[in-house]
Amino acid sequence: MPDTNVIAREREDKLQGMGCSRKRKEDARFIRGRGSYVDDIQLPGMLFGAMVRSPYAHARIKSINKAKALTVPGVVAVLVADDLKPVNLAWMPTLGGDVQAVLADKKVCFQYQEVAFVVASDRYAAADGAEAVEVEYEELPVLVDPRRAMDRDAPIIREDIADKKEVGHGPRTHPNHIFTWEAGDKAGTDAAFAGAPVTVRQEILNPRVHPCPLETCGCVASFDKPTGQLTVYMTAQAPHLVRTVSSLLSGIAESKIRIVSGDIGGGFGNKVAVYPGYVVAIVASIVTGVPIKWIESRIENLSTTAFARDYHCVGELAADRDGRIRALRFTALGDYGAFNAHVSATKFPAGLFSICTGSYDIPKAYCKVDAVYTNKAPGGVAYRCSLRVTEAIYLIERMIDVLAQNIGVDKAEIRRRNFVKAEQFPYTTALGWTLDSGNYHAALDKVLKAVDYEGLRREQAQKRARGELMGIGISTFTEIVGAGPTKACDILGIGLFDSCEIRVHPTGSVIARLGTMSQGQGHATTYAQIIATELGLPSEDIQIEEGDTDKAPYGAGTWGSRSTPVGGAAAARAARKIKEKARKIAAHLLEVGEGDLEWDVDRFTVKGNPSEVKTMKEICMASHTGNIPAGMEQGLNSVEYYDPPNLTFPFGAYLCVVDIDRFTGETKIRRFYALDDCGTRINPMIIEGQIHGGLTEAFAVAMGQAIPFDENGNHLGNSLLDYFLPTSVEAPHWETDFTVTPSPHHPIGAKGVAESPHVGGIPCFSNAVADAFAHLGVTHMEMPHTSYRVWQQCNALGLNKR
Fold first, then answer.
1. 611 and 679 together in one domain
2. How many CA atoms lie within 13 A of 588 on its CB side?
3. 403 in the same domain as 386
4. Tens-digit pLDDT profile for residues 356-376
5. Domain-embedded: residue 184
């Protein structure tokens, strides 16, 4: 007799479902150059837009003269703030609960702020027209340093709200103050510090950086006057949220607005927000009656779209003499730029910064964040992380090393002593998050064994004796992802649930539409694999559609690593609804009770009589006939709106080895070993690719990225000549590993993975660089660790003398 287990495995292999490293379905068109991006959109009669931007960081607008621009061949119109006021579009709401000028009205608050919008027959004429617009400015004092923002004599950035006592997030103490946010037990934490035998304190900066996706932001807005229908093709990570904001702004019924996000060339949080270019393109289309295309340049993207980080932190830990942490006290000053456009939930204006206890069992904790306005571009996006999680994890992972160095305990051992133990899960942190699952000790031990940690420390000791610099960095992080529970997370009041609609055809092929939006994550493959496993239908025959608000059910999009934790859960649950209906049909066809059936990969069989079978493909066809249970509707379709009960908490253990040339400051990454636990693994190959991408961006941030400004607010890093964007030439070799600890509350046990390597990788690099100098008394070095900055440390210590 044939081996039934072998046959079942063969059928399972044909599905190419969860756990299979099948090739990405979407790549066939990408490698052939058949992608469809916003700039590929061509519509009849389309005109082009270009922005006039301020050369000053802070100035009054004395006058704007359009006359010369309107004489430029091809220029059709020039829009300024006064042109937007009649349609109430001069200001727009931000995702941080603030308002932002669409085009500067009377005053500019950051360099490159939008002042006017030129519409022309082609992009070259639009650029020429923008050059011809004459703007007279009166310069004002500039505020660049957030630490001076609340000084008595500090320049007031936002005169429009200077007298307001609060701007959406509680009392303000200064016209440049946005909010103060606190979490934890301050009195209990202060008491723990007062009684602790060991306390450490370190000022730590997370510098301003930028996601810098390969494709910049842009849109094509097309308003049809006879029907009142607005269609916008755009680079949006959250199309439905953009549609809602567009309706609130324009007054156009949401049912008459269609947002279409086609292929997106990377997002990393940069394409969540609504930018002035989108709004003014919509207005221009309404005014002219023709489609308007606006595509920003690289300099515009780096200068004006949402930045990340810029958190000036102070970390403090209180501990016993053996390194057991008693309390944590973290404070931060956030530079939010000229407008609070930070993507944040109403309850969490500082994002999820309170995950700062990390992987550690810390009895008492308190954190506080103050946010201020400065003369810089607005933003504060989750650059390949959930909101402010990278800042939080960087702070705790650096402070763990500072504590270890202070008391002379090995940096791996101090982590072991403070980990949350496997038997403690679910574990509620001192700052209120319930970590659903984890096994931190096993993850770290697996990494240390794989790299021969003790051997590396012996080698390091030998090199130090010879005057050589070798650093070993460890990062054992817990991330918080899957922004979704509406009880905790929202954007402008809208809950962060997500959705999936599945339609099964008579022949067994499937179309699934979701409220998320891929920017390269492989959704067309992984979602199909989830549904394939749940329904027993081949993933090759399952088509995934996202990004078109006229087709997909409402969802909050893709950011904060929420696709699998929320969208994937919706897909699994929608498929299970169909499977339950299929079970009823199978029972009817086999003339047995539903309880007499059991599921076997791609079919239902009768218990005790496995030859009595109905495959899912047979059931799909039967569901479209009259041979179904009485009173049942035809078809196998379902819709699921999934509101998760909790966020998910992927974790990892990373180790980095660096060698530093003390004469040049050049830092070579000799080895980087990354172990991730993302729960159930849907497609190991795609996971590997996501980890490589996240680690490469972590390498970029730690070793080279920063957005600097001079004292006049001039942007000094807004081209790829200045801003570090690593390629495969610069990126190190990555060694990856995994453990599997499924999420107990997720339908398939998945946690999300794409952002974890960025969150965990940054402190790992930084810890390695600092560790190279630890024996010389150095406890901390600020990012980015460029060769010049590392050389400065060598020079300060006199190490570069021959």
1. no
2. 18
3. yes
4. 999 999 999 999 999 999 999
5. no
**How many domains does the chain divide into?**
3
Catalytic residues, which ones? Answer: 237, 384-385, 755
Q: Answer whether 476's CB lies under 8 Å from 591's CB.
A: no
DSSP symbol at 154: P
7-16, 104-113, 391-400, 533-542: least confidently modelled range:
7-16
The answer to whether the peptide bond before residue 426 is cis (omega within 30 degrees of 0) is yes
Q: Is 199's pLDDT higher than 90?
A: yes
pLDDT digits (tens, 9 = 90+) for 687-704: 999 999 999 999 999 999
Determine the pLDDT at residue 443.
Answer: 98
Quickly tell me which residue has 């990126």 as its tokens.
731
465 SS3 class = helix
Residue 330 CA to residue 118 CA, distance in Å, equals 47
Under DSSP, the state recorded for 648 is: B
Phi, psi of 605 (to 5 degrees): -120, 155
Mention every residue, 6+ apart, whose C-beta is less than 8 A from residue 596: 587, 606, 607
In contact, 479 and 760? CB cutoff 8 Å: yes
Is residue 189 included in any domain, yes or no? no
CA 251 to chain centre: 30
Q: Which of 431, 347, 342 is nearest to 387 (CA)?
A: 342
DSSP for residue 166 = B
The beta-strand segments (E) located in 594-683 are 597-599, 603-606, 609-615, 636-642, 651-660, 667-677
Spatial CB neighbours of 777, under 8 Å, sequence gap ≥ 6: none
| Same domain flag for 468 and 579 | no
Distant-in-sequence, close-in-space partners of 723: CB < 8 Å, separation ≥ 6? 210, 212, 302, 705, 707, 717
Task: Quickly count: other Cβ atoms within 10 Å of residue 92's Cβ.
Answer: 24
Cβ pair 476, 652 in contact under 8 A: yes
The candidate with the shortest Cα–Cα distance to 708, out of 732, 724, 696, 692, is 724
Cα–Cα distance measured from residue 209 to residue 217, given in angstroms and rounded to the nearest whole number: 17
Does 754 reside within a domain?
yes
Which amino acid, residue 442?
A: A
Domain encompassing residue 503: 4-35+498-642
**Helices 756-772 and 389-407: angle between axes, nearest 10 degrees:** 30
User: Which residue type occupies 391?
Assistant: E
Q: In the prediction, which pLDDT does 238 show?
A: 96
Tokens, residue 54:
């301020």
Query: What's the rounded mean pLDDT across residues 427-440?
Result: 98
What tokens appear for 143 in the block? Answer: 């505020």
Burial of 476 from C-beta contacts in 10 A (0-12 / 13-18 / 19+): buried
Q: Tell me what the mean pLDDT of segment 410-437 comes to.
A: 98
Residue 226: other Cβ atoms inside 10 A: 6
Query: What amino acid occupies position 59?
Result: A
The neighbouring-strand residues paired with 120 are: 48, 75
- 380 & 514 share domain: no
- 151, 144, 106, 121: which is closest to 48 by C-alpha? 121
Tokens of 85: 């006021």
Helix residue ranges per DSSP H, 33-176: 67-71, 81-84, 123-132
